[in-house]
């Protein structure tokens, strides 16, 4: 299994667990902001928003909780 296969599997798992994925992305964003002394906050926010759109199948806003 190559890296591409692993990333594809990870993306499929993330799409199936939108709430958990959202929480992990927010935690990772906060960690990165702290580690970079908030120098790249805007870029991090844009990246997290792009990932959230991807994992929420293009839906705007927060994932639905079931």
Automatic annotation (TrEMBL):
Identify the Pfam families for this entry: MT0933_antitox
Q: What's the name of the protein? A: MT0933-like antitoxin protein
Superkingdom of this protein's organism: Bacteria
Q: Which species is listed as the source?
A: Sinosporangium siamense
UniProt xrefs under InterPro entries: Antitoxin_Rv0909/MT0933 (IPR028037)
């Amino acid at each position: 299994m190559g890296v591409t296969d692993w990333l594809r599997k990870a993306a499929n798992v993330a799409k199936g667990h939108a709430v958990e994925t959202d929480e992990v992305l927010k935690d990772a964003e906060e960690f990165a902001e702290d580690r970079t002394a908030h120098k790249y906050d805007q870029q991090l926010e844009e990246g997290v928003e792009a990932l959230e759109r991807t994992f929420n199948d293009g839906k705007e806003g927060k994932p639905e909780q079931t």
